[in-house]
Amino acid sequence: MNYAAMTHDPLSYALRNVPRYTSYPTAPHFHDGVTAETYADWLGAISRDDSLSLYLHVPYCRELCHYCGCHTKATRQDAPLKTYAATLGQEIGLVSEHLKEAGPVRHIHWGGGTPSLLPRQSLIDLTDLLRDRFDLSPDLEHAIELDPRLVTEDLAETLAQVGINRSSLGVQDFDPDVQKAIGRVQPYEIVAKATRFLRSAGLNALNFDLMYGLPGQSRDTILDTVDKTLSLAPGRIALFGYAHVPWMRKHQRLIDETALPSAAQRLELADLARAELLNAGYVAIGLDHFARADDSMAIALADGSLKRNFQGYTTDQGEQLVGFGVSSIGKMSRGFIQNMPDVGNWRRSILAGELPVSKGLALSADDRMRGRIIEELMTNYACDLAPVCERYGLSLRDLETALDTLQDLITDGMVALDFGANDNVRVSVTETGRPYVRLAAAAFDAYLAESQATGKARHSAAI
Hints:
This protein is α/β, with parallel strands linked by helices. It contains 17 helices and 19 strands. The protein is globular.
């Protein structure tokens, strides 16, 4: 990346703390004024014209990795998994009763945790229930997150049997010393074997999740990790910056902070990995995803249909996202819903026949407008502001502060403003600015300044 023409130090941008914008407004602004009754009303308003996406959260792993920022817990027993699966089935039944005339399901995503820990029969029963309760689209994408250490030939065949057609493998890094530092030892041979099992079962749509900014990473280790990843040829690669948030995830205190790369080193690691992936022919998708040119995500980027939600960048075209399981988040036309974060209260609520809502947020016209702009910037790197304002009954005057906030990025050639016909303003993120696209999006975040001033929300570094 060429930073020579920039007025401001690129590190000053990389160090800024801003949300990842998998939603807008972001989750720290959800509140308990949105209740089970609110959710029931929102579900009841969904019609046959509304296509669905389903997210199922399984908050269990065999052990906790030191770096993990997910809502999960460790268990060595199968009993909690069976009980959880049974309750999840009851929640699916409960929610489906409120969906009077929902349209087809276009996308299903199993996340966690390690959702494949659910017993084989539980996976079969739950997927059968989804088919019974919902209208699954013939072109459904059915995805699951996997721990490569736990992928067996039998598991791969079970996943194929229940209709899974995309798998995401948590790789992070291939260096043995880095793996020890983050509490996730999985040699290259294990990942290669998992990949082979999945492909042998017909599961050819594979994603790899990698990380930069981990303890002990260097130029050599990140390049070796990318090289080994390329040898296994996944269709998509996510390259996430490690977010060290020990105040939120106490197990991250197991990581030696003195071994974490500096801000300058993080920026270098990100640039090195990005360059290698681009040189290998992958297409850059937003700030942290890459896809082979023939992958549906690269095609969605090219035709403008790429989306962003709580799973990150996605080809998911579902108009309503329904979440199941502990802490899961859904998005309806009217707002966001989040389930209770602890298994006990979540289960008791469902057994009582109540939707297990913890909090949420009803969307205003201003929220919808800004959310649309942010998603356009995060996916397509550009947005025509006037049509979006008009769509939600607002005007460009409502965005004056946002446009002023972009000034530094404009000066440094990271963002461009074009003033066109009909008083339109087009905001574009340049090639130089694309790794920093979160900063451009943050300019349109009406909640950010207050949350930073009050400490209501703490976010990760932009790079």
